[in-house]
Design goal:
One of its GO terms (cellular component) is plasma membrane. Its main location: membrane. By secondary structure, this protein is an alpha+beta fold. The protein has 2 domains: 30-105 and 160-329 and 370-478, Outer membrane efflux proteins (OEP) (Up-down Bundle), CATH 1.20.1600; 107-158 and 331-364, Outer membrane efflux proteins (OEP), CATH 2.20.200. Helix content is 62%, strand content 11%. It has helices spanning 3-26, 61-64, 68-80, 82-104, 125-131, 163-229, 235-269, 300-303, 305-326, 371-438, 444-478, and strands spanning 108-118, 134-136, 139-140, 145-158, 331-342, 355-364. Strand 2 and strand 3 (139-140) form a beta hairpin. Helix 10 (371-438) packs antiparallel against helix 11 (444-478). It is elongated and about 140 Å long.
């Protein structure tokens, strides 16, 4: 019997048994099915008569916000806002992670060179052997023994189960998610600047209304003082008018402080030190508002960056599950190297005596105590299910935000029309009460109450207009506009 047949008879059966046991073991790898995300949305928005696909989210933000002063602020913020720049660096880090994951499933080749000196004991197996070895006649092995080596060595993990490729694809999904996160940041930044800008303009108009009212009250105060001198009014009336003037002057300081804080909030968003913010505050309540088009709910899936971000996070979680499952299977590695090695530098070029090379293949498979792998796999499944819920929550939240804002815009428009009529009526009543008061046909309380009601109605009108503008900005953001 030749040596090959002896080997076959001696080792073939154990090897076959080992391979069979391995396949039986890995046929029991756990698997868990995670349900798909529910992305269905109604065909239209509640209480909306629009059913076409015309959508204001498709508008560029410069077309939606036509105020040149506001455009300048947004342009500055998109360059200098610190939070946005931080987000952009996160995108860059996610892109670098793709390169790192891609390198994991490519062969690793290293250049290695080294030198060492070794002294072994004479009464060891190596020492006794070296002592009896002659390099040349009458020359023993050097002691201590130096060694010089230079070569190229490579290692490569064979991605049989696509663990490394799935890990790289997951990094790509994370990168795309970070890009959508940047888009979401841009949308929110534009929205926040626009809202602060409109709040600032509203405060300017409130301050102007207070100044106008102070002029009216100042004239009324002069009138009642004259009437007191003519014994047609009392000191009580004078004091009540003075108190009302002082109250409005105090309110003026409060509005001025709000203006300072709002200006500084805008300065912070655009990344500059506190300073005056240029704005157009004229015709705040008279300017007409452009129409908003909401499109259909399914457009939210492609227009909203936060929904797309959650979608990519879900895809990354699915790939992480596949990578975690691949840990149950054997891993295969190939190691190879070629170089030169000798105990004297001059022998390094003596070939083939100084030539070294190796080629090896490894298979490593977990057999016992796989609890850590099972726990990692279970965690990956839990994260995938968590990503499913987060995706569904983001979609539902987007739909509800648009529905709420749609109702809010409608109610604010109706409220604004009523407040306009109220302001007009009270403004006319001020002239009437002043005339009656000068002719002693109305007392000072009627004048005071009329002026107070007129002031409150004008402030309410400005506040309602501000809420209308803020609602439009929120709707533009909720529809997914601003990042294009």
């Amino acid at each position: 019997m030749n040596r090959l047949s002896i080997f076959q008879s001696k080792y073939a059966k154990p090897v076959c048994i080992g391979i069979l046991a391995t396949f039986c073991l890995y046929s029991c790898v756990p698997s868990r099915e995670i349900r798909e995300a529910n992305t269905s949305l109604p065909g239209g928005y509640q209480d909306s008569i629009q059913q076409d696909t015309v959508n204001s989210a498709a508008m560029n933000w410069k077309d939606f916000f036509r105020d040149e002063k506001l455009q300048e602020l947004i342009d500055t913020a998109l360059v200098h806002n610190q939070e946005l720049n931080i987000t952009m660096q996160q995108v860059a880090m996610a892109k670098n992670e793709i390169r790192a994951r891609k390198g994991e499933y490519l062969p690793s080749v290293n250049l290695q060179a080294g030198a060492e000196v070794e002294k072994v004991g004479r009464y060891t197996s190596q020492g006794a052997n070296d002592a009896n070895t002659d390099i040349r006649p009458e020359e023993e092995f050097p002691e201590p023994l130096p060694n010089f080596m230079a070569g190229v060595f490579a290692s490569w993990e064979l991605d049989v189960w696509k663990k490394l490729r799935n890990s790289k694809k997951a990094a790509v999904m994370e990168y795309l998610s970070s890009v959508e996160g940047q888009h979401f940041m841009v949308t929110n930044l534009i929205s926040e600047i626009a809202q602060s800008y409109y709040e600032l303009i509203a405060l300017d108009n409130e301050l102007a209304i207070i100044d106008q009212n102070l002029d009216i009250q100042g004239n009324a105060l002069k009138t009642i003082r004259i009437q007191k001198q003519a014994a047609r009014a009392t000191e009580l009336g004078v004091r009540r008018f003075e108190a009302e003037v002082l109250k409005n002057k105090s309110e003026r300081y409060a509005v001025q402080q709000e203006i300072v804080e709002t200006e500084n909030r805008i300065n912070f968003l655009i990344g500059r030190a506190p300073q005056h913010v240029d704005r157009n505050s004229q015709n705040f309540t008279e300017a007409s508002l452009d129409s908003l088009y909401t499109g259909i709910p399914s457009q939210l899936l492609t227009n909203r960056p936060d929904i797309r971000q959650a979608e990519f996070e879900l895809e990354a979680a699915k790939l992480d599950v596949k990578s975690a499952r691949a840990n149950f299977y054997p891993s295969f590695e190939i190691h190879a190297g070629v170089g030169l090695e000798a105990f004297k530098p001059e022998f390094l070029t003596t070939t083939p005596e100084s030539l070294l090379y190796n080629l090896a293949g490894d298979m490593v498979a977990p057999l016992i105590n796989r609890n850590a792998i099972k726990a990692t796999y279970a965690t990956a499944n839990a994260r995938q299910l968590q990503a499913v819920y987060d995706y569904e929550k983001t979609i539902l939240n987007a739909y509800i935000e648009v529905s709420n804002e749609l109702s809010n815009i409608d109610k604010l428009q109706k409220s604004y029309e009523l407040k306009q009529d109220q302001v007009e009526a009270l403004t006319q009543s001020i002239d009437l009460t002043n005339k009656l008061f000068r002719s002693a046909r109305a007392d000072y309380m009627e004048v005071l109450l009329t002026q107070r009601d007129a002031l409150e109605s004008k402030m309410d009108l400005v506040e309602t207009r501000k809420e209308q503008l803020l609602a439009r900005v929120s709707m533009y953001r909720n529809l997914g506009g601003g990042w294009q």
